[in-house]
Amino acid sequence: PRICVLISGNGSNLQAMIDAVEGGQLNAEIVAVISNRPGVFGLERAEKAGIPAHCLDHKDYPVRDEFDAKLQSLIDSVKPDAVVLAGFMRILTAEFVEHFSGKLLNIHPSLLPKFKGLNTHQRAIDNGDSEHGVSVHFVTPELDGGPVIIQSRVPVFEDDAASDLAERVQEQERRIYPLVLQWFVAGRLTMKDNKAVLDDHIL
Ligand SMILES: N[C@@H]1O[C@H](COP(=O)(O)O)[C@@H](O)[C@H]1O
C-alpha cells in the first residue's frame, strides 16, 4: 500500500510513520511527503529517509481553490491508497476532501469534539480540564468534524504550561497514528456512512 503524507512543520508524526515502516509495524510505503511551507524540518526527515519530498508553497496560490487543485493533482500523480495529514495546517476545500473521501486521515491534538481548531493545549488548561488528549479521524468537509477512529487521553497537571501538555500529547500521537495507518492499509478500517468501521464494528 502507498501512503502520501502532508505536513507543514517539524514532522514528528511523519518520523513516527517512517520509523514504523522501517521497524515493520507499518506494512506500507511512504511514496511522497508534501509540505505547504518551504524549508521545514519535516522535509529534511523525508529526504534523510529517501522519500520524495515536495513543497507546494500556499503563498504562491492566493486563491485557495487553485492551491487545492494543484495539491490534488500532485497527490493523484503518486496514486496513494492513503492520504495522511500530519501537522498539515491548511483548511482544505470540500472538493478536495470529497475527492479523497474515505482515505484521508488527520490527527488533531484534542479529545474531539472538544476544542476543534487551534491552541488546543492552552484551551484545555484555561478550561480547567483534568484530562486532555489526541484524536485520529477521517477527514470530512466539516473542520475537525470527521468520524473519530481512536483517541488517547493524558492527564493535565495543575502546574502544566501548554508546552508541557503538547509534549505529553505528542508522545501519544507517535504511538497511535502508525497503529491506525496499519489498520487502514491492512483493509481493516474504513469509513461508511460518515462512521469509522474497524473489523465490521462501528467505532
Ligand atoms: N495537528 C497537530 O500538529 C502537530 C504537528 O506536529 P508534527 O507532526 O509536525 O511534529 C501535532 O501536535 C498534531 O496533532
* SSE sequence, one letter per element: EHEHEHEHEHEEHEEE
Number of helices: 6
* Share in β-strands: 25-35%
User: Please, what is the average pLDDT?
Assistant: 98
Order of strands side by side in the largest beta sheet? 3-2-1-4-5-6-7
Shape: globular
Cα gyration radius (Å): 16 Å
What distance separates the N and C termini?
A: 23 Å
> Which bin fits the share of residues in helices?
25-40%
The counted number of beta strands is 10
Bound molecules: 5-O-phosphono-beta-D-ribofuranosylamine
Outline the biggest β-sheet.
Answer: 7 strands, mixed
Instruction: Give the class from helix and strand content and strand pairing.
Output: alpha/beta
Low-confidence stretches: none
Active site: 108 (proton donor)
Binding site for N(1)-(5-phospho-beta-D-ribosyl)glycinamide: 11-13
GO biological process, one term: 'de novo' IMP biosynthetic process
Pfam families: Formyl_trans_N (PF00551)
